[in-house]
Every structure is written in structure tokens, then in C-alpha cells.
Design brief:
single chain, 12 helices, transmembrane, EmrE-like, transmembrane helix, EamA domain-containing protein, EamA_dom
């Protein structure tokens, strides 16, 4: 009896720790996004990405030393590793390019469609079976994206295009991460950071502006914050079920609205809020249906109206 109580107590503590780490990690990602928007107002996207990548090695350095540099060069499926670096670099670069002109909440609304893209791409690239309910949710989610995008000649902007393509690259990165789940987090994050470092350096040519000590420190901090956020979320997923943590990821959108309002005076339009709500609900339903299928829950245990 005592052992059972102790075990349940440990499980509850792990679950609570996972939830708190997920919330903290998402907050850190949102803070990273707000800091990035502030910095790209004064410096080129390439310069911000370059110095941010250098800052990330403040966190990655000890991890690489602990793992050993040799493991960085002994990877399975190098082509997929390269494609993932391309996807994550595209995702990062286009995100910062989009927030130069768009409010944080607008850009984050596009990125919240990640689970929708992943569901569609999983069927096309991984051969995973996607039932009609998830396909319906995917279509509804795309409608939400179109509401946010408002693709008319009068309203469509290059910045919206950056956010859309960047969010699709984000979905590809998740898919490739699934295929490379046997590769350590340290190796994956190191190579994606090297990718952004190289691209940022190339984009900085002819666009360098000498930053003050404060600005340089802020760009280095950007890399530390993003790395810390990634590690928090990775640890959270090891402590608590993904089904419990997935809905918490949408707090990113809430923080984007808050930071955008407080620091930049951006008030999301009703169109953005409606489109974001559709995207979030569609994404949560897709995740729910995936868990139902994976665990083969009997029909009588599925909430009424879902199956």
C-alpha cells in the first residue's frame, strides 16, 4: 500500500514537473520571439540570426563536450539530416523576416498550423493512415489559415508569404524530426544552429551594422533563451504524456498577443483571432484523433460525438 502511494505521488510530481516545464518552455519561446521582433527593427535578419546562433553555443557547448564531438559527424541518414537543417533554417529565417512588419500574434497564428501541416505531410511523406475525421479537420484548419492569410491582391503581403512558407518549413522539420528520432537532441540542435549560423553570416554580407554592447548582448541572449526553451520542452515530453502537454503549446499564441500588445502596441484584428481559433481547434482535434487511433480506444470510451 505504501509503495503504491509513493509511486502515485512520484507520477503526480513528474506530471506536474512536465506541465510546468512545458509552460515555461513556451513562455521562453514567446519571449524569444518578442526579443527577435524588437531586434530586427534595428538590425538585419541575417545579423540577428548570426549572433543568435553564436549565443546558442553558450548552452550547446557543454552539451557537445559531454556527448563528444565525434558523434556530431557519425549520423544516420545524412541526407535527411541535411534536409532538416534546411527546413529549420528556413523556418527561423522566415519567422524573423515576417515579424519585421507583422504583429507577433499574426505570425504565430501561422505557426500554430504546424500540427495541421504535419498531419497532411505524414500521410504524403510517411505513409501514415489519416482517417476522414482528421482530413476534415485538416481542411478546416487550412480554412483558418486562409482567413489569417486573406489571399487577395489588396491584402496579401510578402510578410504573410514569409510567415506561411516558414510555418510549412516548420511542419517539414517536425516530420524529419520523427524520421530522425534516433539522433540525439544535442546533434540535431547543433547542426540546425550551424545551419542558421552559416545562412545568417551570408545574409549579413553588406548589411552589417555594428551593434552596441547592449544590442550584441541581447542577440546573444536570444540564442540562450531559444536553446533553453527547446531543452525545457524536450525534458517536459520525457516527464509527462504528449497528450497532456500538446494543448499547452497553444499558450504561445496567448503570449504572442500579450507581448505584442504590451511591447509593440499591436492589437490583433477580429479576422486574425477567428482564423487563429479555427487553426487551434483543428490542431487540437487532429492530435486527439491521432491519440485515439494510436491507443485503439474502444468506441464506448471515446467522448460522444468524436468517433
Amino acid at each position: 500500500m505504501a509503495q503504491t502511494i509513493a509511486r502515485n505521488f512520484t507520477i503526480r510530481n513528474m506530471l506536474l514537473a512536465g506541465i510546468l516545464l512545458m509552460l515555461a518552455g513556451d513562455f521562453m519561446f514567446a519571449l524569444n520571439d518578442a526579443m527577435g521582433k524588437w531586434l530586427v527593427a534595428s538590425f538585419s535578419v541575417g545579423q540577428v540570426v548570426l549572433i543568435r546562433s553564436i549565443g546558442a553555443f553558450i548552452v550547446l557547448g557543454p552539451m557537445i563536450a559531454n556527448q563528444g564531438t565525434g558523434k556530431l559527424f557519425h549520423m544516420d541518414r545524412p541526407l535527411l539530416q541535411f534536409l532538416r537543417v534546411v527546413a529549420t533554417t528556413t523556418d527561423t529565417g522566415l519567422f524573423y523576416a515576417a515579424v519585421v512588419y507583422l504583429p507577433l500574434a499574426d505570425v504565430m497564428s501561422f505557426y500554430m498550423a504546424g500540427p495541421i501541416y504535419v498531419a497532411a505531410l505524414s500521410h504524403l511523406l510517411l505513409g501514415e493512415k489519416v482517417g476522414w475525421r482528421r482530413w476534415l479537420a485538416i481542411l478546416v484548419g487550412f480554412c483558418g489559415v486562409l482567413i489569417i492569410l486573406k489571399p487577395s491582391t489588396a491584402a496579401f503581403s510578402m510578410s504573410s508569404g514569409f510567415a506561411l512558407v516558414g510555418s510549412i518549413a516548420f511542419g517539414f522539420a517536425i516530420i524529419l524530426g520523427r524520421l530522425l528520432r534516433g539522433t540525439s537532441d544535442t546533434t540535431l540542435v547543433t547542426w540546425q544552429t550551424i545551419g542558421t549560423l552559416i545562412v545568417g553570416g551570408a545574409l549579413t554580407i553588406g548589411a552589417w551594422r555594428t551593434p552596441s554592447a547592449l544590442d550584441f548582448g541581447a542577440m546573444l541572449l536570444l540564442g540562450v533563451v531559444s536553446c533553453a526553451a527547446h531543452l525545457m520542452i524536450t525534458r517536459a515530453l520525457k516527464l509527462a504524456p504528449a497528450s497532456t502537454l500538446a494543448p499547452l503549446h497553444y499558450t504561445l499564441l496567448l503570449w504572442a498577443v500579450v507581448f505584442g500588445l504590451v511591447f509593440f502596441g499591436d492589437v490583433p484584428s477580429p479576422r486574425i483571432l477567428v482564423g487563429a481559433a479555427i487553426v487551434v481547434l483543428a490542431g487540437m482535434f487532429i492530435f486527439h484523433r491521432q491519440k485515439v487511433v494510436e491507443t485503439e480506444v474502444p468506441p464506448e470510451n471515446v467522448p460522444k460525438g468524436v468517433n
